[in-house]
Amino acid sequence: MYGFSRAVGIFRLRVLLHPLIVCLVAPVAIPGCGDYGPPKDTEGLQNLQPVTGSVSYEGKPTPGAVVLFLSADAPDSFNYRIAGTVEEDGSFEMQTTVPEGTRPGVAPGEYVVTVSWNELVDPRDRDSDVGPDLIPSKFKSYKTSGLRVEIVEGTNELDPFVLTP
Q1: Based on the domain organization, do 88 and 133 belong to the same domain?
Q2: How many CB atoms sit inside 10 A of residue 136's CB?
Q3: Are residues 110 and 150 in the same domain?
Q4: Within a 13 Å sphere around the CA of 130, how many CA atoms are in the beta-carbon half?
Q5: What is the pLDDT of residue 126?
Q6: Please, what is the end-to-end C-alpha distance for the chain in angstroms?
Q7: With a threshold of 0.85, does the pTM exceed it?
Q8: Does residue 153 lie within any of the structural domains?
Q9: pLDDT tens-digit series, residues 32-70
C-alpha cells in the first residue's frame, strides 16, 4: 500500500508542477510572443513610424477592408508588404511585412494607397473566402484610387480615407 500511495503522490506533484513549467518555459520557447518578431534592424523594418487612419465608404465604416501602401517611387515593387486591416469602427493600423516577419509601422516616404473590401462568404470568419466587391474596383489599383500619403518621422494619424462611388 505504501508503494501505491507514493506513486499517487508523485503523480499529484507532476500534475501540479506541469502547468508551472509550461508557464515558465513557454514565453521563452514560443517565438512571436511579445516583442520576439524580427529584429528592428532587419532590412525593410528599420525606422518604422506608427501609422493609423480610418476608411469609410458612403459615410459608413468598412470593417475587414485591407489598406495597402505602395512606394510612390516604385509601386510595382513587392519587396515589402505594408498593410492594415480595417476594424469595426473603421480604424486601421499599418504594419510592414518582410520575409523575416512583421512589425507595426511604416518607413518615412511617399506612398500610393489601395483599398479593397469584399463581402466574406462567411461573415463570422475574417479569414473566409471573399465574395463580390463592396466598394468600386477603382480603389484596388494604385493607378486609379487617387489616394496618396506621406509618412513622416513620429506618429502619423492620417486624414480619413472617405471613399465615394
Answers
A1: yes
A2: 14
A3: yes
A4: 9
A5: 67
A6: 81
A7: no
A8: yes
A9: 445 557 888 888 898 999 999 999 999 999 999 999 999
